[in-house]
C-alpha cells in the first residue's frame, strides 16, 4: 500500500473519529472528515491512499480530479514565491506546480482562480505535484476552427507562453495564438481570455488579437494620449510625424493608430500641434 493508489479496502473496525480499513496486511485510518457517503452497512470501501499531516498512510473517499494517467483542468488556489503555485486536485491537500513548470517571470504566473491542464504525481513520501500538460497532450483536446469564425470572439484559457506570444485553447477546443504585437500586456499562464479571431488557418487553428477593433480603439487610444499629455502639463514631444518606433515604445500604438487618435482629439478641439510637439488646448 502506497500513496497515490486507488484501492478497495475492507472495514476492519470503527472508532469515534472514523473507520480503520485493511488490505489484509496494513491497517489505515479513514477519518470522518474524509467520508463522503454513508458506509455504516458496507464491508468494503473504495478509497484513495494519501499521507496525513503526521506522515502516516491515510485513506480518503474523495477522488482526485487528475492522476498520473489522467490529465484534467484544475484551479489555482495560491501562489508562493520561489516555490510555485498550488492547485485544487479535489483532495484535502492541494498539489504544487513547481517553478520549473512555470514561466521564468512571476508576473505571468497563474493567479488564484486561473486554470491549468495538469497530471498528478505523488512521491513515496506523499507530496503531491501537478505538472502542466505538454503540447502533445494538449493536441488531444484540439478541434478545428470553421472559416465563419473570422472576426468573431473566442473565450478560452492560456496554456502556453513563448517569447513571441501566447497559446490559448478555447472553451470548444480551438487552438489559438496571440502574437505579442496583438496585445497590450502579456497574459498570465492559465488566464481566462476573450480574444478576436483575425485569421483562420489551414491546420484548423486561429490567430487571435486582444486589441480592440480600429473603430473601438480610437476613443481608448485618444484617452490614453490625453492622459499622458496632462501628466506632462499639457505638452508632449510627439506629433503625427513622430518616429513609429518611438510611438510604439511610449504608447504601444502603431503610427496609424496614433494618428487616428490625434485626429479624433483635434476634431474635438482638445489638442493642437506645433513644431513637432502636441499641446492640450486650455
Give an account of the 3D structure:
With 282 residues, the protein is an alpha+beta fold. It folds into 4 domains: 6-60, OB fold (Dihydrolipoamide Acetyltransferase, E2P) (Beta Barrel); 72-133, Nucleic acid-binding proteins (OB fold (Dihydrolipoamide Acetyltransferase, E2P), Beta Barrel); 142-209, OB fold (Dihydrolipoamide Acetyltransferase, E2P) (Beta Barrel), CATH 2.40.50.140; 214-280, Winged helix-like DNA-binding domain superfamily/Winged helix DNA-binding domain (Arc Repressor Mutant, subunit A), CATH 1.10.10. The chain is built from 4 helices and 18 strands. The chain has helices at residues 135-138, 214-231, 244-251, 255-267, and strands at residues 6-15, 18-22, 27-31, 44-51, 57-60, 72-80, 84-88, 95-98, 115-122, 128-132, 153-162, 165-170, 175-179, 192-200, 206-209, 235-236, 271-274, 277-280. The strands form 4 sheets. It has a 5-stranded mixed beta barrel with strand order 1-2-3-5-4. A 5-stranded antiparallel beta sheet has the order 8-7-6-9-10, with no helix packed on it. A 5-stranded mixed barrel has the order 11-12-13-15-14. The chain is elongated. The protein starts with 5 loop residues before the first strand and ends with a strand.
Amino acid at each position: 500500500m502506497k500513496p497515490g493508489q486507488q484501492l478497495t479496502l475492507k472495514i476492519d473496525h470503527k472508532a469515534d473519529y472514523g473507520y480503520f480499513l485493511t488490505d489484509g496486511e496494513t491497517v489505515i485510518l479513514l477519518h470522518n472528515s474524509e467520508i463522503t457517503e454513508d458506509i455504516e452497512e458496507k464491508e468494503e470501501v473504495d478509497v484513495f491512499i494519501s499521507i496525513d499531516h503526521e506522515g502516516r498512510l491515510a485513506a480518503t473517499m474523495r477522488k482526485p480530479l487528475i492522476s498520473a494517467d489522467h490529465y484534467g483542468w484544475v484551479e489555482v488556489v495560491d501562489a508562493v514565491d520561489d516555490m510555485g503555485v498550488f492547485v485544487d486536485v479535489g483532495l484535502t491537500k492541494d498539489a504544487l506546480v513547481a517553478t520549473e513548470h512555470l514561466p521564468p517571470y512571476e508576473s505571468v504566473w497563474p493567479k488564484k482562480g486561473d486554470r491549468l491542464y495538469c497530471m498528478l504525481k505523488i512521491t513515496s513520501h506523499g507530496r503531491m505535484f501537478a505538472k502542466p500538460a505538454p503540447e502533445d497532450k494538449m493536441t488531444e483536446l484540439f478541434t478545428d476552427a470553421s472559416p465563419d469564425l473570422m472576426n468573431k470572439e473566442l473565450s478560452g484559457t492560456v496554456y502556453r507562453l513563448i517569447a513571441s506570444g501566447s497559446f490559448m485553447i478555447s472553451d470548444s477546443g480551438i487552438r489559438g495564438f496571440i502574437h505579442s504585437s496583438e496585445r497590450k500586456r502579456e497574459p498570465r499562464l492559465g488566464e481566462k481570455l476573450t480574444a478576436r479571431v483575425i485569421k483562420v488557418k489551414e491546420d484548423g487553428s486561429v490567430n487571435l488579437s486582444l486589441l480592440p477593433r480600429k473603430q473601438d480603439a480610437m476613443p481608448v487610444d485618444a484617452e490614453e494620449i490625453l492622459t499622458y499629455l496632462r501628466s506632462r502639463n499639457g505638452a508632449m514631444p510627439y506629433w503625427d510625424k513622430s518616429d513609429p518606433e518611438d510611438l510604439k515604445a511610449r504608447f504601444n500604438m502603431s503610427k496609424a493608430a496614433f494618428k487616428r487618435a490625434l485626429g479624433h482629439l483635434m476634431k474635438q478641439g482638445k489638442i493642437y500641434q506645433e513644431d513637432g510637439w502636441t499641446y492640450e488646448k486650455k
